[in-house]
Amino acid sequence: MIAVTVLGGFLTTMTDQTALTAGVVLLVLGGWAVSLCLHEFGHAITAYRGGDWSVRAKGYLTLDPRRYTDPVLSIVLPLIFVAIGGIPLPGGAVWINHAALRSRRTESMVSLAGPSANLVVGMLLAGAISLIQMPLGLAAGLSYLAFLQVIAFVLNILPIPGLDGYGVIEPWLSPAARRFGEKARPWAPLALFVVLIGVPLVGRMFFELAYFVFDVVGGDAALTSFGNSIFRSILGGL
Asked: Is residue 40 annotated as a catalytic residue, yes or no?
């Protein structure tokens, strides 16, 4: 009878842990998909207001994830990178007709709008966690999701060809610099990820910067660490 009781308690604990892990994973993945749409919607709505009306015909103003996502670029690769290094790939893209935009300032604002959306989502999530009483598992999952938003902001704002930060400064560069940027655009982000993951010092500096921004927007590092450990407990074995 005692053995059965102990076994039953063990199974209950395992079931609770499995449910917690599954809930956090689904929360983070679902939240990341939504934030991906908001990131790209930010680009699109800013471009629309700046003169590129073609984004409406392309369906970018609908918040439909099918308009932005690709099964490999938006799901498989981001999961792998989050599992092994905690760095989420942007995962989607909108095609902007830059010739239709009214000014160089508008071009910069279009590029800045995507990362800004991630930062705002991170701030809102961090604020909700601090103001609303909720279960520990939910708070940990939301905190980790908020941290991923901050990572996405810090990553995308870097002035590297292929990332939004470069798009902010690109309109103001010389023709020669822009030509170099075009050539570097396909491989520069991949080189960045290799350096971030393969060079511990650079990776540590990047995450220190991300945690600094996260602290500024009111994030909870302890909750984030807990949410990260839950999330990677299942993805790390894939």
From this structure: yes
What is d(CA 4, CA 7) in angstroms, rounded to the nearest whole number? 5
Query: What six digits make up the tokens of 189?
Result: 């982000």
Where do we find the tokens 């000014």?
Answer: 103
Of 40, 107, 170, 182, which is the active-site residue? 40
pLDDT tens column, 139-155: 999 999 999 999 999 99
* 51: alpha, beta or left? (left if phi > 0; alpha if psi -120 to 50): left
Domain ranges, ordered by start, for the chain: 2-235
> How far is 116 from 162, CA to CA, in rounded Å?
17
Residue with tokens 């701030």: 123
The Cα–Cα gap between 47 and 57 comes to 13
Exposure class string for 128-163: b at 16+ Cβ within 10 A, else e: ebeeeeeeebbbbbbbbbbbbbbbbbbbbbbebbbb
**Given a cut of 80, is residue 130 above it in pLDDT?**
yes
